[in-house]
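Intended use. Records like the one below are meant for learning the mapping from a protein sequence to its folded structure. Do not use them to infer anything beyond what is encoded.
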Amino acid sequence: MQSFKGQTALITGASSGIGVSFARQLAGHGVHLILVARREDRLNALAAELAGDHGITVRVFAQDLSVDGAAQALYSRIKEEGLQVDLLLNNAGLGKHGEFLELAMDTHTSMMHLNIDALTELTWLFGRDMVARRSGNILLVSSIAGFVPVPLFSTYAASKAFVLNFGRALHKEWKPHNVNVTVLCPGGTLTEFMDVSGQKIDGIRSLAMMSSDSVASAGLQALQRRKAVVVPGWLYKVSMASLRLIPGRAQTAVGEMATR
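Structure written out for the chain above:
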């Protein structure tokens, strides 16, 4: 990650989990940070820690990106501050586990706003600047759920399928402009996501859980190598590669088993 030294990274969902791991790892390599999340107290504490430990500049923007107009508002604030974003890490996401009709429509709407709308708008806004100056890197956080239909996680998995295919397309589209787009597709990760989503992970499935640090490291290494897609962890890599051999109906069954 030495090639990113001295650059500025914007990290969404930076108050916990993989977002915090991104921030700490990039700070350790001399990357200046713009931290974005709803919880300003957590962002301020993390900013003080990283600026003090690594001598970098850390800016904090408290913003709920699931709200209409939030992405444009964030972009405008950053431009007004005269900041240039060299790396965009679209990490913020929301998932809720449960039967489709048992979840409130507002829950589905919030997932789609954050996982699709805000991510797309931030990519368009900052990607436009990167293409214009012919330099930049964007990491989109999807999920292995983006590879298959997932009953009980139907909206979440569908939103992550969008992110996966969106990122793959932009990786090809922006390559001639020297702007790289990489999609990170983690499997089970030990973060607050499991608590918020309501999914219980126990038994043998708990053995496959990865740390947020290992997932973030895999994503940043893939971004530096300008890869299109990365699935962290050998078990998940093998599983996703094996899907090519399974018929569509069976893939849905696989997705269902992963959430029961």
